[in-house]
Amino acid sequence: MGNKIIIEQEKIGKGSVNVTAVLGTVLSADSQMVANVHSNRDARGLNVSTSYRNMSGMWLQMDDGREMELPPMQNGITAREGQKVAVIGIQNDDGVGLQDWYRVNLSTGATSFRQVNLYGIMKKLTGAKLSWFAPIIPAALLGVVVAAMNPNSPAAFFGGLIPGYLVCWFLMSGNAMGHQTKILDLVKKASQKVADAGPSATSDQLAKLNV
User: Fold this and answer.
1) How far is it, in rounded angstroms, from Cα 156 to Cα 162?
2) Rounded to an integer, what is the distance from CA 198 to the centroid of its chain?
3) pLDDT by residue (tens digit) across 101-134?
């Protein structure tokens, strides 16, 4: 990948999360419609439907002279030879992140992105994580207390366990959810900045966006 430019930067969790971009000129591009056939059988018989999605990929000549392939992305931006495209990703100070998340055609202002779930890398990215098992113990203790207070109710234990687990899960996982929201907002802001830079923008000009 070409020379990365930091467009946005924010302290999130254990360190900084950087929104990065690399700029390239389209050498060749391919866009095609892919059809998916869906079938479902019910009491009325077999129902068949077809959905279509655009898959767009391209080759870029990066500013540092290297070439880069962008694999097909569902509903990705389209581009013609010679147009400028920025590839936007995120990374923390340790280099953990995603390289090809958003794509921006600077010549048209069009933007496309991948649907991603950051929770899989959130612990390495910001230090936060979703806690699935840790809430079980405090929730079980709450269930025991509720059951002791309602000895004649067989469901009393679960009446304390289930809401207790949900509350504890939210409290223990709140940081991870908040971090994902912050990162999404940061990347959207950076992508809009890049799109607004226009077709004449250079890597040096994009680098000045991080002010």
Assistant:
1) 10
2) 24
3) 999 999 999 999 888 888 888 999 998 887 777 7
What's the rounded Cα separation, in Å, for the pair 151 and 88?
Answer: 58
Rg of the chain over all Cα atoms, to the nearest angstrom: 24
Q: Name 95's Cβ contacts closer than 8 Å, sequence gap at least 6.
A: none
Q: What are phi and psi of 145, to 5 degrees?
A: -65, -45
Render 51-114 in DSSP notation, one character per residue: EEEEEEEEEEEETTS-EEEEEEEETPPP--TT-EEEEEEEEETTS-EEEEEEEEETTT--EEE-
Give the separation between CA 211 and CA 8, rounded to whole angstroms.
Answer: 8
pTM for this structure?
Answer: 0.74
State how far the Cα of 113 lies from the Cα of 87, in Å rounded to an integer: 10
For tokens 């929104």, the residue is: 19
Distance CA 209, CA 18 (A): 13
Q: Which two tokens stand for residue 194?
A: 């890049």
